[in-house]
């Protein structure tokens, strides 16, 4: 989840760069926090993947009628699911620094990684360091919706 400050009226390239900074930082911070940085691999088709963690047998549910084994969503971390399912990103916006910082603090209070980007101000913002956006670590919808569910798409 990327949250941009729309009030800054950044150029498209600046928006892309700031969102990129935030996403990379959020994912790296989550990987380090979870001790999973060494589990990143490049597959044969040049796709980056996170090596799956083994599923505990007590988490699996066996369906005797079909012979299928079902693994509950909670047995797979949101970070692992994000890599497995295609590294989706959603971008929403706020209209002030106050809103951005408030969201950042609420995310941290909830225990989530929130990568807050502060631009140095060299190319925009008249030389003033400026908070431009944040990205949250990969989360399941039911985790992130209480924080960002009401924000409009960017």
Structure description:
Helix content is 32%, strand content 21%. The protein has 154 residues and is of the alpha+beta class. The protein has a 4-stranded mixed β-sheet. A two-stranded antiparallel sheet has the order 2-3. The chain has a two-stranded antiparallel ribbon with strand order 4-5. A hairpin with a 5-residue loop joins strand 2 and strand 3 (48-50). The longest helix has 22 residues, at 12-33. 25% of the residues are buried.
Produce the secondary structure layout.
Layout: E1 2-5, H1 12-33, E2 40-42, E3 48-50, E4 61-63, E5 68-70, H2 78-84, E6 91-94, H3 97-109, E7 114-119, E8 130-136, H4 141-148
Parallel strand pairs: 1-6
Antiparallel strand pairs: 1-8, 2-3, 4-5, 7-8
Query: What value does the average pLDDT take?
Result: 91
Distance from N terminus to C terminus (CA atoms, Å) equals: 11 Å
Number of strands: 8
Helix content: 25-40%
What proportion strand? 15-25%
Alpha-beta content class: alpha+beta
């Amino acid at each position: 989840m990327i949250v941009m400050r729309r009030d800054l009226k950044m150029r498209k390239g600046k928006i892309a760069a700031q969102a990129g900074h935030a996403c990379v930082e959020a994912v790296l911070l989550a990987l380090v926090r979870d001790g999973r940085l060494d589990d990143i691999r490049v597959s044969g088709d040049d796709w980056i993947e996170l090596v799956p963690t083994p599923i505990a047998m007590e988490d699996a549910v066996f369906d005797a009628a079909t012979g299928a084994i079902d693994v509950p969503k909670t047995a797979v971390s949101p970070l692992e699911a994000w890599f497995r399912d295609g590294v989706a990103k959603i971008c929403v916006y706020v209209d002030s620094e106050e809103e951005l910082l408030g969201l950042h603090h609420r995310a941290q209070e909830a225990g989530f990684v929130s990568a807050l980007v502060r631009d140095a101000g060299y190319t925009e913002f008249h030389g003033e360091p400026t908070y431009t956006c944040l990205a949250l670590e990969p989360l399941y919808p039911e985790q992130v919706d209480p924080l960002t569910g009401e924000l409009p798409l960017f």
